[in-house]
Structure formats: structure tokens, C-alpha cells
Amino acid sequence: MATDHKTVADEIADRDPRSFQARWRMRVHRIADQPLWTHPLLRLATALGAALLFALVVSVPLDLTGQLIFSAGSFGAALLLSRTPGRLTTLAMIVLSISASSRYMYWRVTDTVGFTNWLDACFGFGLLLAELYAFLVLLIGYFQTAWPLQRRPVSMPQDVDSWPSVDVFIPTYNEPLEVVKQTVFSAMQMDWPEDRLHVYVLDDGRRDEFRDFCQELGVGYLTRDDNAHAKAGNINAALAVTDSDYVAIFDCDHIPTRSFLQVCMGWFIRDPKLAMLQTPHHFFSPDPFEKNLDTFHVMPNEGELFYGIVQDGNDLWNAAFFCGSCAVIKRAPLLEVGGVAVETVTEDAHTALKLSRRGYNTAYLELPQAAGLATESLSAHVGQRIRWARGMAQICRVDNPLLGPGLKLGQRLCYFNAMLHFFYGLPRLVFLTAPLAYLLFSAHVFQATAAMITAYALPHLAHASITNSRIQGRFRYSFWNEVYESVLAWYIMRPVLVAFINPKLGKFNVTAKGGVIEQSYFDWSIARPYLILLLLNLLGFAVGIGRMVYVGPSSEVFTTLVINMVWTAYNIILTSASLAVASETRQVRSTPRVTAALPAALRFADGKTLVCETDDFSQSGVGLRVPPELRLEPGSHVEVSLFRSDEEGTFPAQVTFSGDGRLGLHFGELSLHQQADLARLTFARADAWIDFWGNRQHDKPLTSLKSVAVIGLRGLGQVATNSLNILRGRREAVSR
């Protein structure tokens, strides 16, 4: 008997056969369901027709009125689409954005570069090259992020005896033992058969206290005779003396949850060709941007876009990157490619590239299963990003993904865009200074009228802004990318260009973690490039005002001045916000606290017990929510119990603060067993980081622009205040 097969149109008709919308959708889907659409010739003809239509949209010349009408209609459609949910709607917005941007770039190349003197040509072609770079990054970025895979965990087999063995590597070099302890405690308590879980501390610092600590806990302790190839060499040395089927790697400050392996390993069982699975790098301490700008848990940090959207998009194309930590790698494929790559200082991404070239699959789970410490200071943050940028430039030279065997087109583009991204230093500096060419030197970088520049450029920028806001809105707010790039541009530009020319230059630098900042201070050394850029833009803006007064509002020059001054004002906001990041705030806690509401109980010296709830916790203390009437003297000794399901841990503590319904406790001297219990009940909880991931309010571009402007005003105020303090100090020194 034949099977009754229903098309999409039939299902729509069954649900609501009378409404106009249903009838219209039914007709559309009946056309789409026709078998002729699967014919190769028709598909080719459709593709050619779409390409010709796109070429027509991009290249047809329009006068000012026509361009304004086209832009208004296109942007109006994008605004309507932005209010409509669904991935297909997102794709439609991407098409509109690409059309507007391609039309702008076509016009730029064909109509605006007829320079008549060397000054105009020098500034003009420099800006055009920067725009072409940004356009290429925009296109490949859409390709990467248009359709994130959103892979979910796969359950492990019921037969626990069939589960593979896993070595857990925790490489360390110069980090303090207190930072590494929590990672070791949590790694030991992962839910995995005890006889198939082997934890190793890989100590390239060869420290006795680490060896003693590992011996007391009963975990592996591995060292080597030298520090060749830094972290990559450390891991490769450990691979040579261990033998489990899989290797889980954690930076020594990245604390895994107990569920890490059960969440990750199911995909290896399902897919025999899977060689590497990466999870997000989540941080429970603020990075310098979040700390110095007071945006921690208020807006996404610099790295969340990569782990929230980009990696998930890479996963669709089988191009997920290994990021050095919070990942599982299958031993056999890793050994097949020679271990962790040592040719570049970004050994992690290069290793994933090698695995992909051999035909192995990689995967990404957008589910935080570990958390670590962010860099404490802006200078350390810049140093870390310099290493990443240098390494990506090295890979681009020695193992360019666009060349060589073994990769599909999607993989090549994803890897290439990751490397291309770190070349933004020079283009960003061009954008931060481009309007000064006209304001200070009267150089015409566009050979076009101000009205035509606005009619073409504004749709390009507006479409890109609202489209990226829709795609990235949970993990990156509008305009903040420009702040991040402005802070780093000067510092990564030279290392990237040098590494691209000579990839053998440069060395691996370890990012310090677990430090403190005793006093607030303004980092004049790191802020010097932003200060120079700010002063240049302020000068350009002042000159522009003078020229506007001189030429009068009826002149074409006046309109051109207005456009360049609006651009300069935006650059002043960005450079001012960059200066605000350089104002380091005080950080006295070496063990940051994590906000969490966990069941707890207090036991007092007289035997009484109070059931309460945690407000936050760290490895050294805990904050409790208690009745407002409870008052305890600072220094009082209590016992605090923490609970998870039917598990309990009790810890001695001392009161550090009491009042307003909150109690601060500092743990007493804890045994290793108690420290392990504390980690199990706090950092190692399976749900420890889920609530912190991607749950903020969705981006609103105008609100984001306002927040960047407010930060910029703060930066100007901080520079003025610190400058006055320096002058006052010098005056007092002279008077003495």
C-alpha cells in the first residue's frame, strides 16, 4: 500500500485552511515542493540568474536621488526583517547587507579613486585598502556565523565498562600553587571511572612544592629536562610517557566541572573520525576591560563572540579550532600529526589545522564546562593578544589554509578568516586617522561629492551594524568591537607584520594569572598610543571648526567638513574609551569570588544552626545571605556547611564582615581533603557556569553607542585628573 506523504503545503493547509496568510504560504510551498527544482540544469540556471541579478544590483549606476531611494527601501526592508525571528530572516538580512556593502565597494573602486595629486593618492589608496580588508572580513564573517551548528551533547553508552581511558593534562610553568590547586581538585572529581581517569600536573617550573602536593593527592607529576617549545613541548613530553586513549587539556587556572568528560566524550563514541572537541573558555574573574570599565556581567567580554558564535559557526564547516584548554583530543590522531604543533606560538589552532588536513573531524560544544582566571592587567592582556596575533601570522606564512591539501572550501575560509582577523592593526589605525587627511592637509581621499559619499557609505555601515547585531547580539554589543580593536591595534600591528615577513621571529610568552593590583593607577605607558591618537583627532576637530567658520554653511566644502568631523568625533569617542581601559582599578583579591546562590548552613560555637544561602564563593571564603537582624563580631569563629543534592561539606571559617543581611567569611586552615570537598561543592558543580553564558539582554545598537560614548567621557575625565595630579606633584616637588 502506498504511503500517504504530505508536503509542507499540505501541513499548512491542515493547520489553518482559511486564513489569507495560510493560503499564500501554501501556494509558495507548493511551488517550492515541485520536483523540477531538484533538476541540475534548473539549479544551475537559478544560480546564474541570481548571480546576474546580484551583479546588476551592485553595479547599476544611479544618481543621488535614485541611490537614496534604493538605500531607503533596502534599509527599511532590513529593519522590518530585524523584528522577525528565524534563521531564514537572518540570511535575508545578510543578503541585503552584502548587497549594500558590495554596491558601496564597487562604487568606491570605480568612481572615487581618480586622484590628481600624490597626496590625495597616498591617503586615498591607503583608506581604500583598509576598506577592502574590512569588506573581506565582513563577507567571510557572514559565511562563518550565518548558521551556527548548535551541537548538543551525546549521551555515553549505558555500559560503563566500554568507556575509554582519559589522561588529564594540566600544564604549568610559573603560576602559584594556589591557582593550580582548584584545577587539580576538580579534575580528580570528574564523573568518570576511576581506573580510566589519570590526572597529571605537567610542571615546567620543576618545583618541589608542586611535586609534594601531587604526591600527597596521588595524582601524576611530570617534568622534563628543558622547556623547549614551551607549552606545546610540555604536552608532547607528557604524551611520550602516558598512554590513555584520549587527552583532556586544561590550562592550570581553568577549573573543569565534574560533568566535563560525560558531556564531551559522547561525540567521540558516535563519530570515530572525531579527533578534537573544544568547549568555551569561560572566565569567573573580570578581564581588564570588564574590571577597568566596570562592565563585568553587564555586557559580553572581548572573547565571548568567538566562543559564543564564531566557533559554533566554524563547527558547521567542520573547522572548529583547538584553543589550548578545555578540550579533549584523541591520542592516535594527535600522535599521527606529530603531537601538538611546535612551529608557531599558537600551537593550539595550528594543531587543529593539521588534524583537519589529515581528514579528521573537529567539533565544538557551546556549553561552558570549565572556567578560569582572566588576565588581571591591560599590559598582560595586550601581551597575550600579541602572542595570539603573532602565531596566527606565522601559521598564515608556514601553513596557509588557503593552500595545501586536505581541506574543504568551508574549512579554508574559516581558518583563513581567523588569521586575517589579527591583521586589523594597520586598517584600524587608518580608520582612526583617515578624516585627518582632509581636516589637516586638505587631502581628498574620496573623489566624489559629500552627498554621494553619504548616500553610498551610510547604507553599507547601517546594514552591517544591524545585521551583525542580530547575529552577535547575545555575545557582542555593537561598537564595542571597535573599542577592543582600538586598544590593541598599535600593539599587534608590528608583531603581525614582522611575523608574516619572518615567521621564525618571536617566542612564546606565558600569561601571568592569579596576581593582585594593590593600588589603582593610570598606565601611561600602555596608554601612550591612544593619547597621541586622541590629541591628533582633537586637533583635527578644532581645525575643522575653524575651517567651517571660514567657508560658511553654503559651501560644498562645508558639507565635506561636516562628514569628516562626524567621523573624527566618533574616533575621539573610541580613543577616549581606550584611555578609560588604561585606568587600572585596584584588585586586592587573588582568589576572585563567584556569584552563586547555594544552600548553606551556619553552625555557631553554642551549637545553634542557621539555614541560609550563599551570595558568592571563592577558594578562600564565602559570602552568605542571612537575616538582617543577625550580627556577628568580626573575627568570630563559625563552621559553614555547603550542600549539593545529598552531599555536604563542612569548613571552619572566621567572620570578616557582618551587616545588612550579609555575612562575609574567610575559611580557616583547610586540609587537602577539605579543599577538595570545597572544590567539589562549588567550582566543580555541573551547572556552575550555565547561568553566566549568553543570558544577557540582546544588543541594542543605539544603547551600545551611548554606553561607549559615556565610557569615552570617563576616559577624558581620567586623563585630565591624572594629568593634573602629575602637574600638582611636580609643582610641589619644585616648591620643596
Describe it for me?
With 736 residues, this protein is α+β, with helices and mostly antiparallel strands. The protein folds into three domains: 60-147 and 425-490 and 515-585 and 700-736, no CATH class; 163-376, Spore Coat Polysaccharide Biosynthesis Protein SpsA, Chain A; 597-681, predicted glycosyltransferase like domains (Thrombin, subunit H, Beta Barrel), CATH 2.40.10.220. It is built from 23 helices and 19 strands. The strands form four sheets. The protein has a seven-stranded mixed β-sheet, sandwiched between helices. Strands 14-15-16-19-18-17 form a six-stranded antiparallel beta barrel. Strands 5-10-7 form a three-stranded mixed β-sheet. A hairpin with a 5-residue loop joins β14 (599-603) and β15 (609-617). The protein is globular and about 85 Å long. It starts with 7 loop residues before the first helix and ends with a helix.
Report a brief summary of the structure:
With 736 residues, the chain is α+β, with helices and mostly antiparallel strands.
